[in-house]
TrEMBL record:
This is DNA-binding transcriptional regulator, AcrR family. Pfam families: TetR_C_23. It comes from Siphonobacter aquaeclarae. Keywords: DNA-binding. GO terms for molecular function: DNA binding. The keyword DNA-binding applies. Residues 79-206 form the Tetracyclin repressor-like C-terminal domain.
Length: 211
């Protein structure tokens, strides 16, 4: 009996062995010894499998984080750092497939989010919005009118940059990627947290209101 995991794993193995998608759903289903109806009971296309695989990378990352009791005690900054470090671990276990996917993304030369990443993007941005809300409550994140709604997009761009950096990283154990994660997250939270600029603006506002 076909399962979604079996189909997904078989697809990953096929594209890695052949460097391309199967010629057709019929040929792929025959190789798995299932019917086309079995396949379509789970997926409508190969593109949907790719999207599901990338979403599964996010799901596995969240699963690992939530299995650690200490994760709940982290600051918002630490939670995002932990997410990225764990995400890279998940990607590393699937590096050959990820490199192939990213190569295709680059060939598309489009500013739009690749279809394969749409599910992952939606899940990630929801995760970030929840973190930002938690950060505002803990005062780790400064609420800024007109900018708050743009933060999830900014963190998504940061995520794509980290993904690209990791695919090109040739350092031992991807140590440079670890450094990139730390610097990127720290810089981001320094910007969205209470900063010297906020203090200056608060003072200017106070002076203006009381002159």
């Amino acid at each position: 009996m076909a399962t979604i995991e079996k189909i997904r794993q078989a697809y990953q193995e096929y594209v890695l062995e052949h460097g391309q998608q199967p010629a057709s759903v019929f040929a792929f289903a025959k190789k798995l010894k299932i019917t086309e109806s079995d396949f379509y009971g789970f997926y409508n296309s190969f593109e949907q499998i790719e999207r599901d695989i990338w979403t599964s990378f996010f799901d596995e990352t969240r699963k690992r984080l939530e299995a650690e009791e200490v994760f709940g005690t982290y600051s918002v900054r630490e939670k995002l750092l932990a997410f990225y470090f764990t995400w890279i671990e998940v990607l590393t276990a699937n590096r050959s497939f990820v490199l192939r996917s990213v190569k295709e993304f680059r060939q598309q030369r489009s500013l739009r989010t690749p279809v394969a990443l749409e599910g992952f993007k939606g899940q990630f941005q929801k995760f970030v919005r929840d973190l930002l809300e938690e950060g505002r409550e803990s005062q780790e994140v400064k609420s800024r009118r007109f900018l708050d709604t743009r933060y999830p997009d900014a963190f998504w761009i940061q995520t794509l940059w980290l993904l690209d950096f990791w695919t090109k990283d040739t350092s031992a154990r991807f140590e440079k990627t670890d450094s990139a994660i730390e610097k990127a997250v720290n810089a981001a939270f320094d910007l969205i947290g209470v900063s010297a600029l906020d203090s200056v603006l608060d003072l200017a506002k106070f002076v203006y209101q009381n002159h």
